Structure formats: structure tokens, C-alpha cells
């Protein structure tokens, strides 16, 4: 659209600068859907939440590392190193062309399977009842975190290929490859007895099917059957899981704080003692060897204790902004592959954050899922930052964002 103006009596037409589409479309509350705002808002939220995580890892780990005769900075130092690696990985993934992700997706998921399979060899290492780590040269790595990212890259490509096959084949043949990758990925994780990660893998796959054009009626049936199977694995897979369920739903009281309810009870103590503004940064009482995994899976409880309702709410707001920005760009992205990748990563990161919060609040049984970007742990942080880089690259496929970056 071009505005014109007459110049004196000469009858000449003066052209003004075209009005950008984003200036016309995003007014009032719709400005929250502006792809450019979402693009920069996503990156800002990732940076803020990650820096906040470094601060809380330091605050929640000092007692534990000092009692182990280490420097009080030890955990922060390790986490900062992993953060630097993650940032470098993110800078790499955000500059890999989108078409290259499509071409290499099958090799990426194949590599993830190989790494996950190594957990069942002599390189495998167990912790907290799960056999999900491999250790090489004293360095431990959780390959299931890489598998999550691999699925976010491969599933959209697989779904698009299945949609093309649907023109000439019946649905179960068209989607057979997607079913195979989904089943193998979930099975490899479950062989390591890591049900929490298995749930995230299932969540990523479910959202890929949802936005990938899979028939909704069939998706509903598969979701019910799959959900029942996961629930059965959780309940009957081990006595420890059954104890966790009983500890969450009705059999625990403050008098049971030394039993199987130990972690859940002390998590509630931490959240309950924080009040509105908390007891102050670094002043947690539960981190004094009362609350297990205070700087890992239950770091949200320490946040609630030290920074109160306000601090916990601000962290939740960070994930809300992150999720909103991903959804906002995905809804307006015409590239189906980029759109599905963004949705899959959003399901992983935001879904895992919500599950972690629900566990700490006692709404779900303890299942060993860390808080993305916040909990201590190198594998999770590096892969979450790498996934953020992938999202940034996919967001650049949206028309307004691509045009703005070209102008700059």
C-alpha cells in the first residue's frame, strides 16, 4: 500500500515509504502476536530464565558442596561451564539452515538411538533407580536429552513425508515410519527405567501428531491407549513408583517426613515457608540436607522458599512468555516443517517445566524430571539451549521475521 501526495501545481506524485504489514496488523492486544516481538521475546526469556537458573543453582547448592569439602562455588562453576557449552551449541544450531535439518533428521535420530543404546552397555551408569547415563572419562552424559531434540527435528519431517504418502497409501502404511520411530524411541528410554523422560518423549510425539495432520479420531484413540499403558507402567512397573504414588495421593502427613514421603514433605515445607516474598536469597533452611535434590529436580521448592510466591510466579511467567512466543510464531509460520519443530520444542520445554512444578507442589508423583534451564545438570541445560537455537532458526522462516532480519 502506497500513500501519495500532490506537489503544488506541477501535478507530480510523491511516494512515501510503504507501511509495513506488521504496523497495520498488530495493534492493541494483537501486538502480543507480533512475530518480531515473539522472536525477540523468546530469546530474551531464554536468557533471563537461564541466568536466573545459574543464580538459584548457586544458592541451593552451597550447603551440599561445602559439606562435601568442596568450594562453595563448585556447582556454580560446573553449571556455568555447561552453560557456556550450551550457548556455543545454540549459536551453532541457530545458524544451521532449515533445509539441512530436514536432510539430516534421520541421521540425527539414528545417532540419538545409538547413544541411548550405550546406556545398556558397560558405559552405562545408573542413578536414582534409572539407567539413563553414559560415562566416558569421568564425564557423565544423559543421551535421552539429545533424543528429545532429535525427535523434535525428525518427527516434523516424518509427518510431512507421511502426508505425501497418504495420497496413494492407506493411513497405517503412510505413517508406519513415524510409528516405528516413536515406538523405538520410547522403548529405548523405558529400557533405562526412566519413566519421567519417557513421558516427555510421548508428549513430544503427541504434539507432532496433533499439528502434523494425523486424523484426530485416531489420535484420540491412540492417546487413550498410550496414556493407559504409561499409567500402567508407572503404577505396576516397580514398587518404588507405587510408593511414590501413595506418597503423593493421600497417605503422607508431616509425621511421615522420614519415610518414603521424605522428599515430597520437605518440598512442601520449603514452598509453605516462603510466604509472599520468601525468606531471602541464600537463606533456605530445607537446603541444609533436608530436601534431596535441592539444586536439581526440587529447585523450584527452594525458589519458593527463598523468593516466595513472587519469585516462583516470575519464573512461571518466564516459561509462559517462552511458550506464548513459540505458539505466536508457529501460528503465523507458513513453513509446515518449521511450524511443527517449534511446537515440538515448546511441548518439550514448557511441558517439562509444568510437570516439574506439579511434582514439587505435590500434584504429581516424584519422577525425576529437572526444571528446564534452571535445575543443575549439564546434559539438560546444553540440550535445552541447543533446542532454543533450533527454534530461533525455525522462527526465521516466518515472513515478517525474515523480512525484518534482511532489512537489518
From TrEMBL:
InterPro entries recorded: Cell_cycle_FtsW-rel_CS, FtsW/RodA
Bilayer-crossing regions: 36-59, 79-97, 104-126, 146-163, 170-189, 195-211, 218-236, 307-329, 341-367, 373-392
Source domain of life: Bacteria
Keywords: Cell cycle, Cell division, Cell shape, Glycosyltransferase, Membrane, Peptidoglycan synthesis, Transferase, Transmembrane, Transmembrane helix
GO MF terms held by the record: lipid-linked peptidoglycan transporter activity; peptidoglycan glycosyltransferase activity
EC number: 2.4.99.28
Bilayer topology term: Multi-pass membrane protein
One biological process term in Gene Ontology: peptidoglycan biosynthetic process
Gene Ontology, cellular component aspect: cell division site; plasma membrane
Pathway connected to this protein: Cell wall biogenesis; peptidoglycan biosynthesis
Cellular location(s): Membrane
This protein's record includes keyword Cell cycle: yes
Record field: catalytic activity: [GlcNAc-(1->4)-Mur2Ac(oyl-L-Ala-gamma-D-Glu-L-Lys-D-Ala-D-Ala)](n)-di-trans,octa-cis-undecaprenyl diphosphate + beta-D-GlcNAc-(1->4)-Mur2Ac(oyl-L-Ala-gamma-D-Glu-L-Lys-D-Ala-D-Ala)-di-trans,octa-cis-undecaprenyl diphosphate = [GlcNAc-(1->4)-Mur2Ac(oyl-L-Ala-gamma-D-Glu-L-Lys-D-Ala-D-Ala)](n+1)-di-trans,octa-cis-undecaprenyl diphosphate + di-trans,octa-cis-undecaprenyl diphosphate + H(+)
Entry function: Peptidoglycan polymerase that is essential for cell division.
Family membership noted in the UniProt record: Belongs to the SEDS family. FtsW subfamily.
Protein name as catalogued: Probable peptidoglycan glycosyltransferase FtsW
Species the sequence originates in: Bifidobacterium moraviense
Amino acid at each position: 500500500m502506497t500513500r501519495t501526495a500532490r506537489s503544488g501545481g506541477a501535478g507530480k506524485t510523491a511516494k512515501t515509504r510503504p507501511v509495513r504489514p506488521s504496523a497495520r496488523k498488530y495493534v492493541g492486544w494483537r501486538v502480543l502476536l507480533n512475530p518480531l516481538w515473539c522472536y525477540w521475546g523468546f530469546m530474551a526469556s531464554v536468557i533471563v530464565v537461564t541466568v536466573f537458573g545459574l543464580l538459584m543453582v548457586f544458592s541451593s547448592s552451597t550447603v551440599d558442596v561445602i559439606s562435601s569439602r568442596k568450594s562453595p562455588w563448585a556447582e556454580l562453576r560446573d553449571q556455568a561451564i555447561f552453560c557456556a557449552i550450551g550457548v556455543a551449541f545454540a549459536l551453532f544450531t541457530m545458524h544451521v539452515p532449515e533445509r539441512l535439518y530436514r536432510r539430516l533428521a534421520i541421521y540425527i535420530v539414528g545417532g540419538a538411538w545409538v547413544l541411548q543404546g550405550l546406556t545398556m552397555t558397560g558405559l552405562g551408569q545408573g542413578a536414582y533407580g534409572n539407567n539413563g547415563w553414559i560415562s566416558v572419562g569421568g564425564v557423565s552424559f544423559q543421551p535421552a536429552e539429545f533424543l528429545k531434540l532429535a525427535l523434535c527435528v525428525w518427527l516434523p519431517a516424518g509427518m510431512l513425508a507421511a502426508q505425501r504418502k497418504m495420497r496413494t497409501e492407506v493411513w497405517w502404511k503412510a505413517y508406519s515410519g513415524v510409528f516405528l520411530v516413536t515406538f523405538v524411541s520410547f522403548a529405548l528410554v523405558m529400557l533405562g527405567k526412566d519413566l519421567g523422560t519417557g513421558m516427555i518423549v510421548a508428549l513430544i510425539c503427541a504434539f507432532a501428531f496433533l499439528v502434523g495432520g494425523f486424523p484426530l479420531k485416531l489420535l484420540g484413540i491412540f492417546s487413550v491407549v498410550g496414556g493407559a499403558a504409561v499409567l500402567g507402567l508407572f503404577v505396576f512397573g516397580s514398587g518404588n513408583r507405587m510408593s511414590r504414588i501413595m506418597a503423593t495421593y493421600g497417605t503422607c502427613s508431616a509425621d511421615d517426613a522420614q519415610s518414603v514421603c521424605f522428599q515430597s514433605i520437605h518440598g512442601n515445607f520449603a514452598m509453605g515457608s516462603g510466604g509472599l516474598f520468601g525468606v531471602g536469597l541464600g537463606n533456605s533452611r530445607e537446603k541444609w540436607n533436608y530436601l534431596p535434590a535441592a539444586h536439581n529436580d526440587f529447585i523450584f521448592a527452594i525458589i519458593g522458599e527463598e523468593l516466595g510466591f513472587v519469585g516462583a510466579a516470575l519464573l512461571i511467567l518466564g516459561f509462559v512468555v517462552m511458550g506464548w512466543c513459540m505458539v505466536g510464531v508457529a501460528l503465523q509460520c507458513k513453513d509446515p516443517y518449521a511450524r511443527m519443530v517449534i511446537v515440538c520444542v515448546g511441548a518439550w520445554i514448557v511441558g517439562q517445566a509444568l510437570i516439574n512444578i506439579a511434582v514439587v507442589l505435590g500434584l504429581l508423583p516424584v519422577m525425576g524430571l529437572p526444571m528446564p534451564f534452571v535445575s543443575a545438570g549439564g546434559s539438560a541445560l546444553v540440550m535445552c539451549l541447543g533446542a532454543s537455537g533450533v527454534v530461533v532458526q525455525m522462527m526465521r522462516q516466518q515472513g515478517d521475521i525474515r523480512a525484518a532480519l534482511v532489512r537489518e
